[in-house]
Amino acid sequence: SDHHRRVARTLPFYEDCREFIRDHPDRVTAGMVRKAIDLPDTARSLWIGFDVRSAATATATCIDHALPCGADNPHLFGVRTPYEDGSFDYVVHLDLWRMLTPIDLSGLILDSLRIADVALLVQSQRLRRDPVEGIGMIDDLEYFLSIVRPRYEAAVTYEDDELAVVRLARPGHGRSADRAAPRAGQAENAGQQ
Prior knowledge:
By secondary structure, this protein is of the alpha/beta class. It has five helices and six strands, in the order ααβββαβαββα. The longest helix is centred in the N-terminal third of the chain and has 22 residues, at about 1-25.
């Protein structure tokens, strides 16, 4: 079928992207992300990326691409997950989402918002790839937001020199994504004025 041919063509590309992200020195750590997003310790969350188990709380489930693949750690990207509807409060995606084709990125968003109220898409700011090299990645978050905002509540809720976090939710679910959190440093400065 066309679907199987598309998947067969996409897999080598995704494997190249995974290796690029895994080995990149500017990939942000899950610990940095955990501080930036400041989830409640009681939040049920699914983390997908590299080295995510290190930032996990007792209520977190991890798909850690840095650890061996197995029944307890399937190397899924989040496009089709085995979890029940509403299993989590948050799904946190670290960088791997940026390499997905439009079809698969749409699947990731749909599945994330099926299993959780909120999807947090993390971008390592210095992790860039020249599309001429054959691996394109989403870098322009304003463009990305312009594509998803007609259907979802979407905003950059954290941004500094190292990472940015896009918060996605279905309209009317969770607190409003339209109220973007201050950029790093702005919160401290606001209190001093």
